[in-house]
Design a protein that fits this description.
single chain, mainly alpha, 11 helices, elongated
Length: 239
């Protein structure tokens, strides 16, 4: 399912601020100029966004909250729920191409923003991991397998996102092209799930006989039963 996050009343101010930072330069743009571009006072800007760096990732914080909420409420199979959550993030960018590309340009020139992006990606991984650990059955190396799937899902999403961000504006203008990209990502995520599903849903490994708890067997025998009768009675009780 291809899902689209709803618009939000901070999308416009965030887009305006990021656009100004990209055109004028991160260090050359003052907070007063950002507040003016966003159509609010300096105090309101600080109250809504906190800082220049925070405004660059303001929509990320909101989308991360939506991802967490959607996973918590999802009735889908866990891997399918994560596919859906990753698509929610991708489609947010596709629906806001100018802002997403402006932010991408900023991250290429401002190391602190690249570091912040890495932290954000890790938070998505963490949300996916916690969802898996809450929903998948116990099994051998369960947590490591869940970590691997969460990281792989984010990596596939980011690869698609970066490829889209590097496309020219003309190539990304049509809604049909955007739908094709979303569908292609959905297919890749589904294929990834099929790779991991057998490992994540494998039954627990059997306990070796040497480690098994001793069994207590109670059987009733007639007086004077011989050894063969006792052995047979025990076998019948264990079968």
């Amino acid at each position: 399912m291809i899902s689209h996050p709803p618009s939000h009343d901070t999308d416009g101010p965030t887009a305006a601020a990021i656009g100004l930072l990209a055109s004028k330069g991160y260090d050359a743009t003052s907070v007063d100029e950002l507040a003016d571009a966003a159509g609010m006072s300096r105090s309101t800007f600080f109250r809504k966004f906190g800082s220049k760096e925070d405004v660059v990732f303001a929509d990320h914080e909101r989308i991360l909250g939506q991802v967490t909420d959607r996973l918590a409420e999802s009735m889908q199979e866990p891997l399918a729920a994560i596919e859906d959550a990753a698509l929610l993030v991708f489609n947010h960018h596709v629906r806001n191409p100018e802002t997403s590309r402006a932010r991408y340009e900023l991250m290429q020139s401002v190391p602190a923003l690249r570091d912040r992006e890495l932290v954000t990606s890790h938070r998505y991984e963490r949300a996916f991991l916690l969802h898996l650990l809450d929903r998948i059955p116990d099994g051998e190396h369960r947590e490591y397998k869940a970590v691997a799937f969460a990281a792989a899902a984010v990596a596939v999403h980011n690869a698609f996102l970066r490829r889209w961000l590097r496309t020219t504006t003309a190539a990304a203008e049509t809604a049909a092209a955007d739908r094709e990209r979303s569908t292609a990502l959905a297919n890749e995520l589904r294929a990834l799930s099929e790779i991991f599903r057998p490992a994540l849903y494998s039954p627990p490994a059997p306990v070796p006989a040497s480690q098994a708890s001793p069994a207590v067997v109670v059987t009733v025998l007639t007086a004077g039963a011989d050894k063969d009768a006792i052995v047979q009675a025990v076998r019948d009780a264990l079968s």
